[in-house]
Design goal:
Number of helices: 27
Structural class: alpha/beta
Number of domains: 5
Shape: elongated
Strand content: 15-25%
Helix content: 40-55%
Largest sheet: 7 strands, mixed
Length: 944
Amino acid sequence: MRVIAVSTVVIAVVTGIFLVRPASVAILDDKVCDILTGWAGPGTQSGTVVIAEIDEYSLKEFGRWPWPRDLLGLYVRRILDQGASSVVLDMMLPEQDRGVQPVRRPADGRGGTRSETNDSVFSRAVSDNLVIIGYLFRFDGSRPDPSHCILQPLPLVVASPNEVSERAFFHASGAVCSVPEISKAAAGCGFLNAAPDPDGKLRRLPLVIEYGGRYYPSLALAATNAYRKTSKMQLTTNARGAAHLRLDSRVVPLEGPSLMRLRFRGSGRTIPNISAADVLAGRVPAEKIRGKIAIVGVSAPGVQDTASTPVDPLLPGVELQATAIDNLLQDDSFNRPGDAHAWELALVLVVGTAAAVLLTLIRSLWGLLITVGLIAGMWTFCFLLLSATGALLSPLPVTAAVAGNYSVLTLYNYLLERRRADRAERQLVSTKQFTQAALQESEFRYQRLVENVNDAIIMDDLDGRLVFANRRFREWFGLLDRDIREVILEDYVAPEWRTALRDRHNRRLGGDAASGHFEYEGIRADGSRIWIEALVTNVEEDGRIIGTQQALRDITARKRIEAEYLQAQKMESVGRLAGGVAHDFNNLLTVINGYCEILLAEMGEGDPSRAFLERIRAAGDQAAELTQKLLAFSRRQVAQPKPLDLNLVVADAAKMFGRLIGEDIELTTKLCPALGQVMADPGQLHQVLMNLVVNAKDSMPLGGKLIIETNNVDVDEAIAGRQIEVPPGSYVYLGVTDTGVGMSEEVKRHIFEPFFTTKEKGKGTGLGLATVYGIVRQAGGSIWVWSEPGQGSAFHLYLPRITSELPAQRIEGIDGAALRGSETVLLVEDQVAVRQFSRAVLESRGYRVLQASSGPDAIELAGQYPGVIHLLLTDVVLPSMNGRVLADALKMARPEIKVLYTSGYPDEIVGRHGVLDGGVAYLPKPFTPDLLAAKVREVLAAVP
């Protein structure tokens, strides 16, 4: 803000100076305007003006100045005879002539002479009314206009702020009016006057002079009027004087008191000139004068009336008048508007403020360039404005403001910087001490950061020898008390990884492309392995690679979790396969066991083939049990969950553990008294406990301890991060721990897979733990195993804890009686053998059976059947249309029809985790003839 204040003061000072405009500033301003008008150039001459000068050679030829009027009249006559449009006398005629000259003239047809005055000779020469005579205007006011001055006044309309009046040009005293002959003959007259600026330079000429309420024309204005034959002239005035002069349709801008700023055509003898001696001697070609305004004046050095101008220090007055006439003829003069100073000061405020803001923001060499650019831009603007319109604005005020701002602000900023430098120098000692302390603190913080970071950070040389290792790396490999420079990284890498790491290291140091992000296994001092993720970058010195820097991260836990995740994915895939196999196998068992039951029912007790059928039925029952285990593992088994207290399930199952585990195994239960409830099938949880206890018994052939415990567990994000199979939440925990032989990592990866067993061939199916896994997952829980060889095993089960008791779902029991019926049953089954078996059973019980192999066939058959169809017995999975969609379609046409679903596993009618939807009748495969008949009778007898 202080810089802006300083800049404001500079602008205010510059504005004040140009408002006051002392003489030195005015002179300098005129010099600047001279430069601009000089850049604008002399323009193009009209070619209408020629100077007929009375030079030094003419004076030698015809006598010294002033010439007698008869000689001057002869000179004017010669010019007019050459065809000049008008003659302008840039001179004052003396009050009296100097003598009388004899003049020859014819009289009565005879020659003779007579005497005439020089005034008469001159009057006769100018009697054509084409000669404009100059005079000196005097503001004496002592003598009135002579009454015998009969010159015709020129018309003039004066428009002032208050009135418009018709006036005329009047002519003052002098030879023009004091000599009657001249006053009668002269075409017009104009005053000779000049208006030099304070430095004495003539830049402007007055066009009119107001005196005594009358306006008088200048010589240049009178000459232009005579040449142009102006019909109307109007002079507009304001409070400052004449503002502009209108000549017919042309407007001549004026400055101040009726001044016209000249556009100089150049220095002396720029406008074409001819010598008076040549004119009088007849040596001038007529084309040089014909049709032009000839200005007669003295240019001899000894007698000329010189004027100092910006373009020539001694410009003859005749040249000055010629320039004014040429400007008027072409409307080619410059002008400085009356409000030019106000515009210049406004630009000072705008450009000066902009310069101040820019110089405040930018203090480098660019500040000087900006200053020069702003000044150059202002000069260019003024030059373009002058060239385009003739209006003259001075760039001096803006130049002074911008340059002053730059100088003052540069000095001010220098002083500020010097003060800051002095203050900084005084604080150098304390700052240096503070810097050293800060550096030490920074080094300490950096060292503490590197040493305490959770990742290992090392640097090695070209030979792979360590030059630095932080605390984490030394802790990993037991190197806290060893000189790290004696350590080679390769010694702590697993043997199978060393070749690859050595090759990667050599390629990187050789400049070849090698990935800087990779993983490998390291070996700790105790022989255990650690998975390491490495991020490697080169260390360079003077453009040479001198080693590498590595950031190492322990990803052992992540690798374990990834392995567990892959194992879970594998188990999911195996489960789907097992469920599919069980589904297809149940269709086959339905036919095998069903027909076997029919044959046994029809066969007598003494039939020798009955024993074979009973063995077939026993094998079928075992196969059905096996498929139920597969369905349990694949979570396709139909469950009947209800709220359970896990403690009661454990207590009920424990009644059989004594006979199961034997006396050499000590059983301990640790049950939580305030245990929460879970939603599960009690029979399935009983099966889980029995399988886990049997598995524990088999792992302790010499006896041991078995612990079963329950508890309430809340799993947070931290625990869930370590065990990906246990999402965060509230659980009921069931743990079964033994002191048996334990398991290796390889065995643990496969224990839940179907048919995987470590027992001898024929002593185990490998479905016990697979069934446990499937039941737990079907109940929405998770299972996690800990085991070490020789240290036993622990199975940790986590089942979701429910917050309130829910009503238990139940399925009504099946009446085992062989019930009969006479209703119509629409049987839909895509397996031919199962369809034929079901039809045979139902028809043997008295039912009328309509059969179809697919949903569309069943809909078509039902549409063609005219009678009542009482029951739809359909498989869930059918080609083209599943059983649920088929039932919904038939109910739209036959709302009274009842539905019984059957399937190898009920994917389509079982909700999440295999739980039956309420109100759905379902008969799982395989089923016996009696079960089918009883379930059909139950559904038909149920009240809708």
